[in-house]
Amino acid sequence: MSAPIKPLTQNFAVAPQLGPDDMADVAAAGYKSVIINRPDFEGGPDQPTAADVSRAAQEAGLQIEYQPVVGSAMTSADVARFAELLRTLPGPVLAYCRTGTRCTNLFAAAQQLG
């Protein structure tokens, strides 16, 4: 896998941009679910799309959720949805965005919801 994974808890980790070729490695590392928080084409036309990553994730046996969040415009609805995904997705869960920071911020905010 090309991107480093940063565990935040035993059941949740974040990573920078992942692509379709990373999904088999994510599954092999023991993750059961992936949350994509990076909007499609945020980084330009060369960024892997959520649809392409989702196909590869499903082929690798992962559950996948696309929850695009603009980092500078995160809303309470974004946080509530992220918290819901953490409660309902099989773990461990890996979330990714451009650098991992947006996912880390979503996780911290979701933890405040209880």
Automatic annotation (TrEMBL):
Give the source's domain of life in one word: Bacteria
Instruction: Identify the Gene3D superfamilies for this entry.
Output: Protein tyrosine phosphatase superfamily (3.90.190.10)
Residue ranges of domain Beta-lactamase hydrolase-like protein phosphatase-like in the record: 6-112
Give the Gene Ontology MF terms in alphabetical order. Answer: hydrolase activity
InterPro entries listed in its UniProt record: BLH_phosphatase-like, Prot-tyrosine_phosphatase-like
Protein name, entry field: TIGR01244 family phosphatase
